[in-house]
Known about the structure:
By secondary structure, the protein is mainly β. The protein is built from 1 helix and 10 strands.
Amino acid sequence: MTFSNTVAAASLATLLLAPLASAQQESQTPPPPPCTQDDNFRAFDFWLGTWEVTPWAGGAVAGKNTIRSEEGGCVLTEHWTNVQGGTGQSINYYNPNTGKWRQVWVAGGYAIDIEGGLKEGAMALEGTIYYYAQKNSIPFKGTWTPQEDGSVRQHFEQFNAENKEWATWFDGRYVKTASAE
């Protein structure tokens, strides 16, 4: 192989391999998730952590709830266990297309699907609760309000069609026991 052929082969190899090297560098440093660039995705972060939950009015511990930020800050996952061992989970996320937060909760006998956003410093979501056994759905809403002492009040209400009024479904005090994992 002559010198000019060697130089030509090396130049061709460089041209062919350069995009591959560039792609490897780009794959090693991915761009940050879009959810870290928009403050709306942080609006529910006050709920992150591991919490002991009691009735708002006082009383014995009702259960433990762990809220984590996952998928690059794009979703909050909730893992609830009550003192009898019952469990439930939710996915909570901000949808930039609608400008709303949404929670989809599933437990053994029902599911909740609510959406909304911050109102006067509290996360306020409205939608429906679905009862599997009764095969019906009822208007439902939830509000999470951060308190000055670091606790969070979670207040759920269900609409009573008979008297046309909202009734408390659950009213709890969340007291943090550990940081989010």
